[in-house]
């Protein structure tokens, strides 16, 4: 028999979801079979699996140790530590980590051999002696995404409560998200633009028009901050958050982002090649949190900014 005590980090989820993560290598259907046979109990009683877990709940598993080891695996020891890959933490507490993603790093894996921000997060937790945040039933991960060649702030939940709360705030658009972009052309005034976006999955490219048919509504604000030759540094507020939203909307307005080959104009692409730009100059710069209470009171109304990107400094002083 093996016993598991539910931690604060694991509380708040359904018992069957916890067990599915704990026994990640188990065949389908085994968990409910073991629950029906009382080989898995909750607080020494038979459970259905739909119970909500609380901190200090006791889970008992009446199986051979070798079987349990086979089905659970060793989560922490399986994680690779990356010593020479940057992971720039801007803010952290018991529930969340906000990191500044470098351009060229994936937000999530595209294939098993990839190293994404999620792998770097787990590596950072182990190197920081925070491996206790990682369990067989909970794996910390980032709650938002950025394009591979977009840099800037990303939010990770490192507790279950943190992951759930940040995902909720992002879904409800309660976190104000601001970007810096270097665009080709001179943007003369601030503007709020909206439309409907549709993605071509095959080409991994979006189109924008005013027709709501088959498209998702998008909404963006931007204002010019500074000029350099044929470029404008703009600050963008992302009100909705869809794939390639800023890149496609700015391009449609006639101000494609410098370095953006996918949505660039012939003139902007020629400029980018001439200046050796290797990525679109788009940076997730600022996050403003709403008023929060309880375990998230420490980030209530917090305004978090990242540094000014080095490749922006070729044209602007920051």
Produce a short descriptive summary:
The protein has 318 residues and is α+β, with helices and mostly antiparallel strands. It has helices at 15-22, 30-36, 65-72, 117-127, 160-171, 245-252, 266-274; strands at residues 2-5, 40-42, 58-61, 88-92, 96-101, 141-142, 151-157, 176-184, 191-200, 205-209, 216-228, 231-238, 282-288, 303-305. It folds into three domains: 2-72, RNA-binding S4 domain (Structural Genomics Hypothetical 15.5 Kd Protein In mrcA-pckA Intergenic Region, Chain A, Roll); 77-171, 2-Layer Sandwich (Pseudouridine synthase); 178-284, Pseudouridine synthase.
Could you characterize what this model shows?
With 318 residues, this protein is α+β, with helices and mostly antiparallel strands. It has three domains: 2-72, RNA-binding S4 domain (Structural Genomics Hypothetical 15.5 Kd Protein In mrcA-pckA Intergenic Region, Chain A, Roll), CATH 3.10.290; 77-171, Pseudouridine synthase; 178-284, Pseudouridine synthase. It contains seven helices and 14 strands. The chain has helices at residues 15-22, 30-36, 65-72, 117-127, 160-171, 245-252, 266-274; strands at residues 2-5, 40-42, 58-61, 88-92, 96-101, 141-142, 151-157, 176-184, 191-200, 205-209, 216-228, 231-238, 282-288, 303-305. The strands form two sheets. Strands 4, 5, 6, 7, 8, 9, 10, 11, 12, 13 and 14 form an eleven-stranded mixed beta sheet that branches. A three-stranded antiparallel beta sheet has the order 1-3-2. The radius of gyration is 23 Å and the shape is elongated. It starts with a strand and ends in a 13-residue tail after the last strand. The mean pLDDT is 93.
């Amino acid at each position: 028999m093996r016993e598991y005590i539910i931690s604060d980090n694991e509380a708040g989820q359904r018992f069957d979801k916890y067990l599915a993560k704990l026994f990640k290598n188990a065949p389908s259907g085994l968990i409910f079979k073991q629950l029906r046979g009382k080989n898995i109990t909750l607080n020494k009683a038979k459970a259905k699996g739909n119970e909500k877990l609380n901190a200090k709940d006791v889970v008992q598993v009446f199986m051979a140790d070798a079987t349990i080891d086979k089905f659970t695996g060793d989560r922490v020891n399986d994680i690779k530590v990356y010593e020479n890959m940057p992971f720039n933490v801007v803010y952290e507490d018991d529930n969340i980590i906000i990191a500044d993603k470098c351009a060229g790093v994936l937000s999530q894996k595209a294939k098993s051999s990839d190293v994404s921000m999620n792998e770097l997060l787990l590596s950072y937790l182990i190197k920081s002696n925070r491996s206790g945040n990682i369990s067989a039933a909970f794996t910390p991960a980032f709650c938002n995404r950025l394009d591979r060649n977009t840099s800037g702030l990303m939010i990770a939940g490192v507790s279950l409560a943190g992951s759930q709360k940040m995902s909720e705030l992002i879904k409800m658009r309660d976190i104000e998200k601001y970007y810096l972009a270097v665009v080709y052309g001179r943007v003369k005034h601030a503007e709020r633009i909206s439309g409907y976006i549709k993605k071509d999955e095959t080409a991994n490219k979006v189109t924008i028009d005013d027709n709501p048919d088959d498209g998702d509504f998008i909404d963006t604000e931007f204002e010019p901050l500074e000029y350099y030759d044929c470029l404008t540094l703009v600050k963008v507020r992302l009100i909705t958050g869809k794939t390639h939203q800023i890149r496609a909307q700015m391009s449609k307005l006639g101000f494609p982002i410098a370095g953006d080959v996918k949505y660039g104009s012939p003139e902007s692409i020629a400029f980018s090649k001439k200046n050796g730009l290797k990525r679109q100059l788009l940076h997730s710069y600022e996050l403003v949190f709403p008023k929060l209470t309880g375990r998230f009171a420490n980030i209530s109304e917090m305004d978090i900014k990242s540094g000014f990107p080095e490749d922006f400094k070729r044209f602007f002083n920051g």
